[in-house]
Write a structure and sequence with these properties.
Helices cover about 40% and strands about 15% of the residues. The protein is built from twelve helices and twelve strands. The chain is globular and about 60 Å long.
């Protein structure tokens, strides 16, 4: 499909036109009062840049590596479970975009088509994310399927023992999610982490849903390859900290023993550069990815990533750095936010400031 948007504001408007109210609410909503969603944005907005000048920034390298694989910019595509509800090819659309642009995508257990079909779509590295929907034998069988299909890493989501009370969802949507198999998620322990590691062998392993330094330290003690900081976009527990607020304590807790990635409210290049400066290895996008897919399927997502790339280069140049390794906490500091946060507050030029 032909995609015609010149900036992320236009992209959001296109997505809104294309998506049903139910799908729009699924993408944009969060748990209960949506405080966690807003704190994700507020915590990012509460940091300001400290740029350095008189530096040669004619050549800027925005690339990095994640678990040994090179990516074009420090942006990953977070797992999303219902992509197939608003894109014709489901998670294959994401895989096409990741392959074309040059990044890594996470494939959710609860998306379509099958994990084997998505793996066969392209040879580039991708991670399979597990939602537990069965007993230990079920988990091990699913992990083995993903390894056999060629996924470069396996991710276990650990923040979903109960389904968040997402009050924007319609009764029909909630009914689709209240299934008995979800109860197995309540039984995840650190023994589950060890079991999955034993099952997949040398394949890199990621734990997603870490929100404290204490749990990050335990994950590092279990020798996970990556800690994935996430509060599920504010969609699980209400009134938790904004993710970037927890980033410094988690980076300190793992102390270089594993990689650290983060999601939660990251929608502009400046957001992502702040996270890298505070110690994240990469940033994953969820809602931004969904909006891009809604605007233009795989082509729309590639266009969104290209716009981010332009923003990242500009931001790095104005900060006075030419590669991501030069960033450290000295490039950011505390600041007073200038607007009230919500899911669209990073896009101030939308008509009326927000899309209902």
């Amino acid at each position: 499909m032909a995609v015609h948007f010149n900036n992320v504001h236009e992209m959001l408007l296109m997505a809104r036109r294309n998506l049903s109210q139910d799908n729009w609410d699924y993408i944009n909503g969060a748990a209960e009062t949506e405080t966690s969603l807003r704190r994700n944005r507020m915590s990012i907005d509460s940091l300001a840049f400290r740029p350095r000048v008189c530096r040669d920034v004619r050549k800027i390298d925005m690339s990095t590596t994640f678990l040994g694989d090179k990516i074009r910019i420090p942006v990953l595509l977070a797992p999303m479970g219902s992509i197939h509800r608003w894109t014709p090819k489901g998670a294959v659309e994401v895989d096409i975009a990741a392959e074309e642009f040059g990044t890594i995508n996470f494939i959710s257990t609860v998306t379509e088509p099958s994990l084997e079909e998505i793996a066969a779509n392209s040879p580039h590295p991708k991670s399979f994310q597990i939602y537990v929907r069965g007993d230990d034998d079920w988990i091990k069988a699913l992990a083995k399927r993903a390894v056999d299909a060629g996924y470069k890493s396996i991710t276990l989501t650990v923040d979903s023992s109960f389904y968040g009370n997402r009050e924007r969802l319609s009764p029909t949507q909630m009914a689709l999610r209240n299934v008995p198999e979800r109860d197995f998620q309540k039984g995840i322990t650190w023994d589950t982490v060890k079991m999955v590691q034993d099952t997949i062998g040398d394949v890199p392993f990621i734990v997603k849903g870490i929100m404290t330094g204490e749990d990050a330290a335990i994950a590092a003690e279990h020798e996970v390859d990556c800690v994935y900081i996430s509060n599920h976009g504010g969609r699980q527990m209400d009134h938790v900290y904004g993710n970037i607020d927890t980033l410094p304590e988690i980076v300190a807790a793992v102390d270089g023993r594993c990689e650290v990635i983060i999601d939660g409210g990251f929608t502009r290049a400046g957001d992502m550069i702040k996270a890298i400066a505070l110690g994240a290895d990469a940033v994953a996008i969820g809602r931004l990815q969904a909006w891009a897919l809604g605007a233009g399927e795989a082509e729309g997502l590639v266009k969104c990533l290209e716009l981010l790339e332009i923003e990242i280069e500009r931001t790095m140049g104005l900060l006075g750095v030419t590669n991501l390794d030069q960033l450290d906490p000295s490039y950011v500091g505390p600041a007073m936010p200038v607007r009230l946060p919500h899911e669209h507050s990073a896009f101030p030029h939308l008509p009326d400031g927000r899309i209902p």
